[in-house]
Sequence to fold (607 residues):
Amino acid sequence: MCGIIGIVGDEPVADRLIDGLKRMEYRGYDSAGICTISNGRLVRRRAEGKLANLVDVVSQDPAGGNIGIAHTRWATHGAPTTTNAHPHATEHVALVHNGIIENFKPLRKELLDDGRRLESETDSEVVAHLVSREIENGASPQDAVKTVLPRLRGAFALAIAFRDHPDLLIGARLGSPLVVGYGEGETFLGSDALALAPLTQEIAYLEEGDWAVITCDGATIYDSEHVEVDRSISTSGASAASVEKGNYRHYMQKEIFEQPTVVAQTLSSYLRLSDNSIAMPQFDIDLSAVGRITIVACGTSFYAAMVAKYWFEQFARVPVDVDVASEFRYREPVLEEGGLALFISQSGETADTLAALRHCKVNGQIIGAVVNVPTSSMAREADLLLPTHAGPEIGVASTKAFACQLAVLAALAAHLAVKKGRMSREEEQEVVAHLLEAPAALNAALDHDDDIAAMAHLIAPARDVLYLGRGPDFPLALEGALKLKEISYIHAEGYASGEMKHGPIALIDEHVPVIVIAPSGPLFEKTVSNMQEVQARGGKIVLISDAEGLEEAGDGCMATIEMPKVHPLIAPLVYAVPVQLLAYHTACVKGTDVDQPRNLAKSVTVE
Ligand code: F6R
Fold:
């Protein structure tokens, strides 16, 4: 959700600011803008729509200067127009913001009553004016920021430039991430280490309430009490190359094809091959005492949680509640002291999930976080950090992060079962052996890419598509529907197969493709019966199963997709591949913007 970057340097910054925005475009792409300071003036360039439009604007009307800030926007307050694009500026101050200023209405009224003219509909512009008013009244940049920050409610990462101080920028964070990057005679601000990857690897992560004054010589960081603090500088693993598309047409495609590698990479930190056991990271928590698990997440990560519920309950016999993060706190969940609360998130910054995590923390839960960004807020606030090692995920639709989340959750469920005495040593070894089969099985699933691409022509004309699955394949049906709707804009729904007859079957006719996810196994017969109910009503089926399942039930289907025969434990990882590929190729047939679908952003840091 919005990406921000700032550079105080000793050579021109405009191109580097735009390059930084390119690395963050996945965070939002409704509009973009930069502001530099040149010859004692704030030089602002903005454009609505994709970053390419800003590039055009800047090439026609360059922005000089060795210091500047930039922003790529995911609109919250105000339409994605040029006027609402950041940076917002007064004569004295320019500012970029990621987050939401919840009390912007009274602040805006105060500024208007004070005779100030605001030009945008955004919440962010009020902050530029509040800071500017202090500067106009004679305050230093530091004092202006000190006065304004305590007045802001909500979430923000800010970068502020001051016309009369072309040697410094001020950054501040509360609720939205912000890092300081240290270069040779240059210092940077950025929403994440990836944005700064080509500029520096030396990164300090600001903590909640921190603000920082950056100059060419480095940064002075203050906490929320305005006390100067040290924040450790670490070398980020983010590499410029890791955010390239390589030979792939889209990031999403590249990330789907990376799954065998990143799942193997992830499993290697959770499985000990010397004795085929599960090896969790070291932590001082007695998991054998855990009597209840609460899992909270959003979107695709929520579907990973739904799959994991089957594993935790089946292996460890521990009851599991699974909640969508945006609903969790509002249903006043019963949280027994000492329960395990698990948060699943690719970004580790999703505002709803983070708020749920903090709610559980103050309610005495052990906090576990399955996250892909090891420096994210969730990673830092967890008692038990379980990283996925998917590498940067740039495509807005999550794919490889999901597979890695499942790998970690399967290992954790088995580990918990061992700790609780519910899984014997032999059974643990079997689980490890099955998990180790996942990378090869994912490769085998990917071999069907061409067949699935051909099939996408059958799905692309549809107005509605249904996905059916039973047991752990039900969350996959939901995931398949989510993938299809977000990137191809076709309306899609996922249902538990047995639920069809309770209503949704009324939708069935020859125009509604029904994708059935059904590996052969104990639940197969029941799902096939539900599939036949659809066929009897003229429904067109795409059956995704293994050779045995297709042999038994493939006749009469509009199309079939053959998956390798796999153990049920790893089936959710493997069967995610065809639903991802089907959505991907359908979107390609429709010609939508696969990596940056409309209205979406990769990292949703507002509630
Ligand atoms: C769907 C998708 C989203 C995310 C959701 C949670 O393809 O990517 O539904 O899964 O926004 O994001 P994280 O996992 O970063 O918390």
